[in-house]
Amino acid sequence: MSELPRVMVGGPIRDREWSVPLWLGGLLDTTYPRELLSLVVVVNDSKDRTYDACRWWADRALSEGWARAEVLTHDLGTAVDNNARQADRQYKPYAQLRDFWSALRGPDDLYLYSVDSDIQAPRWLLQALVGFAARDDYALLAAVIENNWAPAQQHHTNVMVLDQDGQTHHSKLAYASREMQPRPCVLTGACCVLHRRVFDAGISYVDEAAKVHPPEDNIFCQRLLKAGQKIGYVPGLRASHWHRPPADTEYLSRAEWWARQADYAAHMAEVTPAVGAV
Q1: pLDDT tens digits for 120-174?
Q2: Using CA atoms, how far apart are residues 240 and 268, in angstroms rounded to an integer?
Q3: Helix (H/G/I), strand (E/B), else coil: 61
Q4: Closest CA to 119 of 251, 36, 12
Q5: Distance of alpha carbon 154 from its chain centroid, rounded?
Q6: Which end of the chain is more exposed for a tag (fewer CB within 10 A), N or C?
Q7: CA-CA distance, 134 to 262, in Å (whole number)?
């Protein structure tokens, strides 16, 4: 690309005051030109100080030259609980929040950088994802998510592939692999860039006809593929998934948690992005 496009950055959040410095602090610390970025955060029904924390970082973004920074509320209730077990989640409100957030894109925002509120993204990640997505015309291009407590594990929950029997399963990737991997059938919105043409064409996360709403990312990716759009991920581009810092009485003390955070941040800073997406 001769010129970098404008990008809307952010996503929904609920009751995660503890993660805001990791999440928004990581997004603000970017190599992407700030005058091309809009920060948009949607706070859902939070009982803690999540809104105030997000507002502080939005004000900082504006002071650092971001084109736009907004924090909105869109309460869908406690059914959208970031900390609920997977089996208990009701996916329709999640889908509604993702659709609500994507509709806030500005008229000049060519890409949307969707990052979940428990994800810490390396500072170079946005520029790398946009570069690869534009080069190969991806509608959705994702980073690989690694759990902060096991950065070298082989089980990556945000990439699903089809096996030879047509069944979906989690992809197992060699760390920082440059080899082509099986093409994905589902990618989560945990950390990805999306081209605005997807939403301009009316492709959404919500399935109004579903009696039991499936995971919103499944519906969204199936619709993209059916529409002939390309989805993919870059094996060498990694972001970190964090859990709430534990109490000292739990298996990991707060001091150990923060030490692990610092160690993994240093680890991520040393990762060299692998060239090529699948």
Answers
A1: 888 899 999 999 999 999 999 998 887 765 544 544 556 766 665 666 656 655 4
A2: 8
A3: helix
A4: 12
A5: 19
A6: N
A7: 32
From 201, 205, 200, select the one nearest 227 (Cα to Cα): 201
H helix or E strand, kind and range, residue 270: helix 254-270
**Please, where are the H alpha helices in 13-169?**
20-28, 50-63, 91-102, 125-136
Q: Could you tell me whether strands 140-147 and 191-195 are parallel, antiparallel, or unpaired per DSSP bridges?
A: antiparallel
Please tell me the distance from the alpha carbon of residue 190 to that of residue 217, in angstroms, as a whole number: 10
Instruction: Fill in the amino acid letter for 12.
Output: P
List the alpha helices (DSSP H) in 103-246.
Answer: 125-136, 197-200, 216-226
Reading the block at residue 39, the tokens are 């920060």
Residues of the chain with confidence (pLDDT) below 50 = 1, 79-88, 151-152, 154-155, 174-180, 249-251, 271-277
Domains, the chain, ordered by start: 6-270 (3.90.550.10)
The Cα 91–Cα 214 span in angstroms is: 6
Q: How many C-beta atoms surround the C-beta of residue 215 within 10 A?
A: 17
User: 85: buried, middle or exposed (CB in 10 Å: 19+, 13-18, 0-12)?
Assistant: exposed
